[in-house]
Amino acid sequence: MFNPFKSSNKEDVVFNKFKKQLESKGLAINSIDKDGFIHISVEESDLKVSLDNVRRNYERDSDNSHITDLVDVIVSHLSKKEDWKNIKDKVFIQFFPNDFEFDNLSYEKVTNEFSKVFALNLNNGFSFVTTDDLSDWKIDFEELEKQADLNLGIILDKVKIEFEDIENHKLGMINLEEVALKSSCLFSSKIKNLVQNTIGFPFYAVIPVRDFCYIFAEEDFEYFSQRLGSVVLEEYNGSGYPITTEILKFSETGVEAIGKY
């Protein structure tokens, strides 16, 4: 259920803190393979973990919570597996560039640049759903997708969109306590209801990372598409969780990329 980006796992401060926190939970690193993945085995579970994203975010802001959150997700995953009826309200979506190694994860391609991946939101972190999980839960991909949309719809009821007026053009920003779901909210089937009375539907968006996105109206496409490139690239290159530098159009026919920075 775990398979982030590859890492040349050198013993730096992040690795040492991660190892120490893992051991405090009664777990241990079993091995580190030739590609740098850390393997943690408990009973029938074998997790393959990379510290690349955590290391990048830690270097950016020196926040230990990035390490703690990862350890908490591992502990959650290695604990007793819940039945579908007990776990289904924790299913959401996250996004990864298409060069991510999806292996047997439950995912779906969105554009040529990125895909949505189904995950359980556990202890402020995400544990990816695999095809084996679907088999254990006795559900199919369609039911998983419907449940994720239902859960996103509940989150969307708490979403506020703040608009900044820039030379008579509205730039929208999503305000949500669960910051890791900001970009995910745009993919809820309820998003049309949220935006149609402000910027209208269809609309455009940029989602360089999971906790940052801008939205704007069709009529403002030319204005904002020429002005958002630097901030999109800065966010994308500075985060451990990059998604895409594309400009996305959300319409009745789905989501499509109409350009990229």
Question: Care to give the gist of this entry?
Answer:
With 261 residues, the protein is an alpha+beta fold. 33% of the residues lie in helices and 29% in strands. It contains 10 helices and 13 strands.
Describe this structure in words.
The chain has 261 residues and is an alpha+beta fold. Helix content is 33%, strand content 29%. The protein has 10 helices and 13 strands. It has helices spanning 13-24, 52-61, 65-78, 84-87, 131-137, 141-156, 182-185, 191-195, 221-225, 229-238; strands spanning 31-32, 38-42, 45-49, 91-97, 107-109, 114-122, 125-128, 160-166, 169-175, 203-209, 212-217, 246-251, 254-260. The strands form 3 sheets. A 6-stranded antiparallel sheet has the order 8-9-11-10-12-13. Strands 4, 5, 6 and 7 form a 4-stranded antiparallel sheet that branches. Strands 1-2-3 form a 3-stranded antiparallel sheet, with no helix packed on it. A hairpin with a 2-residue loop joins strand 6 and strand 7. Helix 1 crosses helix 3. The longest helix is centred in the middle third of the chain and has 16 residues, at 141-156. It is globular, with a radius of gyration of 19 Å. Residues 1-10 have low confidence and may be disordered.
